């Protein structure tokens, strides 16, 4: 196995990691603002008369960005293998930042009607295409600078960026909401996190312009060994196509559903099924992510010592076994049938508010329970109005919810921490960007990105006349099923060798 004739110094390697990670973090931030603001965006870009359809449509738009990621992987993966890693993922950064900024400028449904969701969908698709080219480039770039025996450790810093991007998006949203106020944030303040993307992207472009090309790519370019047709070599070659399919169905599909269940579906479940307050929901997710993120680096480092396969497979197995027990405990924290109301503490207030350019009387009732939780129910006296309820958890319940989400984040770090090194080492340098990007983005973009939408749809479909509340855990069958299939295929076909590819 050959290496670059000019190995990257320790100082240079940390600059590579920092520059790559900052840009990738910003791209994930851009991508995840949409999901973090799903409930508000559903009210901005869809008719308010049917909130269930609106939230499903918003989650479908969120998923659409994932579905096109494999196409971005093909387009930008090919460019990365032809012209180099650096300029390709510099291009994806500009596309992502521009489309995110533009979403913040799209008028609401009440202003331009159906053109609003149409414009958002187009911009969301551009986001997906850009992200399809970003991750493979960043992971490949870092791995090709890293010493062979330490790729798991160094690429794990790239792996933290997806979770940190979600964490930063939540932090910016909460800070903006606190600064402008709740009503202003729901009206126009939600645009600020999108518009802020422009500033973040400019900073990242400045940093990335100072980066050099990957030493391994520079070497094969100097030797005239660059692939003339990366797509053909990656997918028309039977041996390489077999590796692509093994990577997809034996690793990234299960990894994708575990990632999105443990973070995004957890947030959707807490807010829409458990009906926990908007701010408290995001605080729960943010704290769990902050506590769990260092484990990406730990499991990346550990995979250098004992191999990638068993760590990833164990993470999927634990998710399969514990998802339903965990979500049952989460649901129990807000199950009113398990609570005792303090009847003499109930308060009811009426207030006139401006809703959709009309003065409407909103009745708010606040009910307190013996376990320290509080339930707020708002009902406006307008046609087709549905009551909106939100739980405020007690301190004990808050930390229990954090703990349950944190356990899921541990599963995420096990399956995600080693996977960049695993994918990089599976394919040769000349077609690595193309070959690794496609299975990653199908696994994460299609199987993983569809998790919130499919899981929420399964929950809604479980509602019947006999059971109007539905089965709150019906959505879990999707990630459990995909993870189970991946676990079986991965255990049969994946190798646990620490280094596999020939450079």
UniProtKB/TrEMBL annotation:
<feature type="transmembrane region" description="Helical">
    <location>
        <begin position="398"/>
        <end position="426"/>
    </location>
</feature>
<feature type="transmembrane region" description="Helical">
    <location>
        <begin position="310"/>
        <end position="327"/>
    </location>
</feature>
<keyword id="KW-1003">Cell membrane</keyword>
<feature type="transmembrane region" description="Helical">
    <location>
        <begin position="54"/>
        <end position="76"/>
    </location>
</feature>
<feature type="transmembrane region" description="Helical">
    <location>
        <begin position="241"/>
        <end position="262"/>
    </location>
</feature>
<feature type="transmembrane region" description="Helical">
    <location>
        <begin position="88"/>
        <end position="106"/>
    </location>
</feature>
<feature type="transmembrane region" description="Helical">
    <location>
        <begin position="188"/>
        <end position="207"/>
    </location>
</feature>
<dbReference type="Pfam" id="PF00083">
    <property type="entry name" value="Sugar_tr"/>
</dbReference>
<dbReference type="InterPro" id="IPR005828">
    <property type="entry name" value="MFS_sugar_transport-like"/>
</dbReference>
<feature type="transmembrane region" description="Helical">
    <location>
        <begin position="112"/>
        <end position="132"/>
    </location>
</feature>
<feature type="transmembrane region" description="Helical">
    <location>
        <begin position="476"/>
        <end position="494"/>
    </location>
</feature>
<dbReference type="InterPro" id="IPR036259">
    <property type="entry name" value="MFS_trans_sf"/>
</dbReference>
<keyword id="KW-1133">Transmembrane helix</keyword>
<dbReference type="GO" id="GO:0005886">
    <property type="term" value="C:plasma membrane"/>
</dbReference>
<dbReference type="GO" id="GO:0022857">
    <property type="term" value="F:transmembrane transporter activity"/>
</dbReference>
<dbReference type="InterPro" id="IPR005829">
    <property type="entry name" value="Sugar_transporter_CS"/>
</dbReference>
<feature type="transmembrane region" description="Helical">
    <location>
        <begin position="12"/>
        <end position="34"/>
    </location>
</feature>
<keyword id="KW-0813">Transport</keyword>
<keyword id="KW-0812">Transmembrane</keyword>
<feature type="domain" description="Major facilitator superfamily (MFS) profile">
    <location>
        <begin position="16"/>
        <end position="498"/>
    </location>
</feature>
<feature type="transmembrane region" description="Helical">
    <location>
        <begin position="438"/>
        <end position="461"/>
    </location>
</feature>
<feature type="transmembrane region" description="Helical">
    <location>
        <begin position="282"/>
        <end position="303"/>
    </location>
</feature>
<keyword id="KW-0472">Membrane</keyword>
<protein>
    <submittedName>
        <fullName>MFS transporter</fullName>
    </submittedName>
</protein>
<feature type="transmembrane region" description="Helical">
    <location>
        <begin position="153"/>
        <end position="176"/>
    </location>
</feature>
<dbReference type="InterPro" id="IPR020846">
    <property type="entry name" value="MFS_dom"/>
</dbReference>
């Amino acid at each position: 196995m050959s290496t670059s004739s000019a190995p990257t110094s320790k100082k240079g390697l940390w600059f590579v990691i920092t520059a790559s990670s900052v840009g990738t973090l910003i791209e994930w931030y851009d991508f995840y603002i949409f999901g973090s603001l799903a409930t508000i965006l559903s009210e901005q870009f869809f008719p308010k008369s049917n909130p269930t359809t609106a939230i499903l449509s918003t989650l479908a738009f969120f998923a659409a960005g994932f579905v096109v990621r494999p196409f971005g992987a093909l387009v930008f993966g090919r460019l990365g293998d032809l012209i180099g890693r650096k300029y390709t993922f510099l291009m994806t950064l500009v596309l992502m930042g521009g489309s995110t900024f533009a979403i913040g400028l799209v008028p609401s449904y009440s202003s331009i009607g159906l053109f609003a969701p149409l414009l958002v969908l187009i911009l969301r698709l551009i986001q997906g295409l850009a992200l399809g080219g970003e991750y493979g480039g960043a992971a490949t770039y870092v791995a090709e600078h890293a010493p062979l025996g330490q790729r798991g450790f160094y690429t794990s810093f790239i792996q933290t960026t997806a979770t940190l991007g979600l964490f930063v998006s939540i932090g910016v949203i909460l800070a903006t909401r606190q600064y402008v106020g709740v009503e202003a944030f729901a009206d126009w303040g939600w645009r600020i996190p999108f518009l802020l993307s422009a500033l973040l992207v400019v900073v990242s472009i400045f940093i990335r312009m100072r980066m050099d090309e990957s030493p391994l790519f520079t070497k094969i370019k100097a030797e005239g060994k660059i692939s003339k047709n990366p797509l053909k070599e990656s997918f028309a070659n039977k041996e390489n196509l077999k590796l692509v399919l093994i990577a997809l169905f034996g690793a990234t599909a299960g990894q994708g559903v575990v990632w999105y269940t443990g973070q995004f579906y957890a947030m959707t479940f807490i807010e829409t099924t458990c009906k926990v307050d908007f701010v408290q929901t995001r605080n729960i997710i943010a704290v769990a992510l902050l506590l769990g993120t260092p484990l990406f680096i730990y499991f990346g480092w550990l995979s250098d010592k004992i191999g990638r396969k068993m760590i990833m497979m164990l993470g999927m197995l634990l998710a399969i076994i514990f998802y339903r027990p965990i979500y049952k405990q989460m649901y129990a924290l807000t199950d009113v049938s398990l609570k005792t109301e303090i009847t003499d503490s109930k308060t009811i207030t009426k207030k006139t508010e401006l809703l959709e350019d009309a003065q409407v009387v909103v009745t708010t009732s606040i009910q307190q329970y013996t376990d320290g939780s509080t339930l707020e129910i708002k009902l406006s006296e307008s046609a087709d109005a549905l009551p909106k309820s939100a739980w405020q958890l007690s301190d004990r319940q808050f930390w229990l919810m954090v703990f349950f989400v944190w356990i899921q984040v541990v599963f995420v770090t096990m399956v995600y921490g080693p996977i960049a090194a695993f994918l990089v080492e599976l394919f040769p340098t000349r077609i690595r960007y193309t070959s690794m990007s496609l299975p990653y983005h199908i696994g994460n973009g299609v199987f993983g990105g569809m998790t919130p939408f499919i899981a929420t749809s399964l929950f809604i479909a479980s509602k019947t006349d006999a059971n109007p509340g539905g089965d709150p855990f019906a959505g879990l069958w999707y990630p459990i099923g995909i993870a189970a299939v991946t676990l079986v295929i991965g255990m049969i076909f994946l190798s646990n060798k620490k280094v596999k590819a020939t450079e």
